[in-house]
């Protein structure tokens, strides 16, 4: 890390969904600042935070943030933390550039770990509709031609893959990358 720290993105899972587990973004930004992070910005209500940390890696930061979040809000949210370089690589490696201009048809899942071959095959066996997916390390790309809301396959992903993660549409991914670049 540089003397100025390193830029990270935190992706929360399961907050502000269906009127449950409500966390206001202004409070979430203040929470990150209270933890000592700087250049804190949030994007949309689903829990996307760009921030600068002076020390620590993504895994350490995720654990610290998850524990402090549970203490403050009284429930646990799985939080995927990745550095800005990870996000830039994932955008550059997009296997579905033909739908990059249709952000509701392309989603990036940030996974806790890389799926095993067996887990990936189990999911491929369930992918019988118009969707396509590609796994690259701890990133899962989903091309859903009819949109995520109309995808039966998308509903099968968490319980079939069994690798914790959280998804963002391509517009959110690109916006977070721009925010990270501007913060860096």
From TrEMBL:
- The organism's place on the tree of life at top rank: Bacteria
- Pfam families in UniProt: DUF1697
Identify the InterPro entries for this entry. DUF1697
Please identify the protein, giving its name as recorded. Answer: DUF1697 domain-containing protein
